[in-house]
């Protein structure tokens, strides 16, 4: 197996070296604020083929493309409606991909033959610096093997992609920890959410009304409205090796743990986030604690910390040899007066409850 070059995104020379690899048709893993991506030149079908091979990605699953700034976004797309243009101007850079008509800059291979492409400008400054050096739109799905959870730090990215990518850029852990929202403005009154993410749809709706988009409806997947599918959501996703069980209440938790213990399953518990933990000074991330009964447990300090750490905990639970992950899933109304549609979506997919 070939080895991947390890580079550091904080080092300007390394960023330039990684950009040359992309320009020469190679593949580079790089950090973003959502998850780490496996990148290649979106205009070069030979480079794109390497992404599909490295991930074992189904051939009908188009890639998200990353650009450095608004001008590059407009150059990679065409014929956008007013709603779509508003989203680009107000939500980019950000953890949001917008489906638009693709320009000739984007190879048909990147979009698996579709006339559209998902574009986004990452929020992470160093990532945008790297993209600007590449000088081309960079296609990058999450840097995991197909079906597995996305890497949210350098070590996880190396576990998934060492020997499969030409280079891996180390950088900060992904601040958000879940993949971008995917939005598609079918026309100026119809906004489809193809994949939920960490954006506040309530305030977006208010902002859009203020901006003059009247009679707008926002359609969520599973809302009963026709939402054009993101092809990737048809496939098994975000799943660790351990089997994932979800609970919504303490009673459900008790029942689940009892029955799994009877089956002698070793369990990793991802408990409901607690504000009590949030008040402990300096506590940043949750890690598993070995319990007296031999199972592992952890509890995030907040909903956003739960989002940020979810995939890392999936990885850790697999490393610890746990056969079952029992994870709290937020209700529609959530905790702290807000919910996370993105968490619900990823947890339900990991548990095989959505397809
Ligand atoms: O946060 C993210 O979006 C990360 C980072 C690396 O930017 N990327 C990511 O890519 O999550 P990936 O490939 O794992 O997910 C891309 C999703 C897939 O479900 C795919 O089907 C959908 O985007 N998609 C891409 N192009 C599309 C298009 N033209 N129409 C509909 N869905 C599209
Ligand atoms: Mg993915």
Structure characterization notes:
With 355 residues, this protein is of the alpha/beta class. Helices cover 31% and strands 20% of the residues. The chain contains 11 helices and 17 strands. It has helices spanning 12-23, 45-55, 70-75, 82-91, 125-134, 154-161, 201-210, 250-262, 275-278, 303-319, 341-350, and strands at residues 5-8, 28-30, 37-41, 64-66, 77-78, 96-102, 116-120, 138-139, 167-170, 181-187, 190-195, 217-219, 243-247, 267-271, 289-290, 296-299, 324-328. The strands form 2 sheets. Strands 1, 2, 3, 4, 5, 6, 7, 8, 9, 10, 11 and 12 form a 12-stranded mixed beta sheet that branches. A 5-stranded mixed beta sheet has the order 13-17-14-16-15, sandwiched between helices. A hairpin with a 6-residue loop joins strand 2 (28-30) and strand 3. Helix 1 packs across helix 5. The longest helix is centred in the last third of the chain and has 17 residues, at 303-319. The model has no long low-confidence stretch (mean pLDDT 91). It binds threonylcarbamoyladenylate and magnesium ion (MG).
Give the helices and strands, then pairings:
Blueprint: E1 5-8, H1 12-23, E2 28-30, E3 37-41, H2 45-55, E4 64-66, H3 70-75, E5 77-78, H4 82-91, E6 96-102, E7 116-120, H5 125-134, E8 138-139, H6 154-161, E9 167-170, E10 181-187, E11 190-195, H7 201-210, E12 217-219, E13 243-247, H8 250-262, E14 267-271, H9 275-278, E15 289-290, E16 296-299, H10 303-319, E17 324-328, H11 341-350
Helix pairs in contact: 1-5
The chain binds threonylcarbamoyladenylate and magnesium ion.
């Amino acid at each position: 197996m070939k080895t991947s070059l390890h580079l550091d995104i904080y080092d300007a020379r390394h960023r330039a070296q990684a950009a040359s690899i992309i320009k020469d048709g190679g593949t580079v893993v790089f950090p973003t604020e959502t998850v780490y991506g496996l990148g290649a030149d979106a205009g070069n079908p030979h480079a794109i083929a390497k992404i599909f091979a490295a991930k074992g990605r189904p051939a009908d699953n188009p890639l998200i493309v990353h650009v450095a700034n608004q001008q590059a976004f407009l150059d990679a797309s065409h014929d956008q409606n007013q709603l779509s243009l508003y989203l680009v101007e107000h939500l980019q850079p950000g953890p949001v991909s917008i489906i638009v008509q693709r320009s000739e800059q984007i190879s048909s291979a990147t979009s698996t033959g579709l006339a559209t492409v998902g574009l986004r400008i990452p929020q992470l400054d160093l990532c945008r610096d790297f993209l600007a050096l590449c000088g081309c739109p960079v296609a990058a799905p999450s840097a995991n093997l197909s079906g597995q959870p996305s890497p949210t730090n350098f070590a996880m990215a190396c576990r998934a992609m060492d020997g499969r990518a030409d280079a891996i850029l180390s950088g900060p852990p992904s601040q958000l920890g879940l993949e971008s929202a995917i939005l598609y403005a079918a026309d100026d009154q119809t906004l489809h959410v193809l994949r939920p993410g960490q954006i506040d749809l309530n305030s977006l709706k208010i902002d859009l009304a203020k901006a003059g988009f009247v009679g707008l409806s926002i359609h969520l997947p599973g809302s009963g409205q026709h939402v054009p599918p993101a092809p990737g959501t048809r496939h098994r996703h975000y799943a660790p090796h351990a089997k994932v069980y979800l609970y919504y209440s303490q009673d459900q938790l008790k029942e689940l743990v009892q029955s799994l213990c009877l089956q002698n399953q070793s369990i990793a518990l991802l408990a409901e986030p607690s504000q009590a933990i949030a008040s402990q000074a300096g506590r940043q991330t949750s890690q598993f604690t070995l319990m007296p009964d031999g199972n592992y447990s952890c509890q995030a300090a907040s909903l956003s910390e739960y989002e940020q750490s979810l995939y890392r905990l999936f990885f850790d639970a697999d490393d610890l040899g746990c056969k079952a992950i029992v994870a709290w899933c937020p209700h529609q109304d959530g905790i702290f007066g807000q919910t996370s549609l993105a968490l619900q979506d990823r947890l339900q997919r990991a548990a095989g409850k959505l397809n």
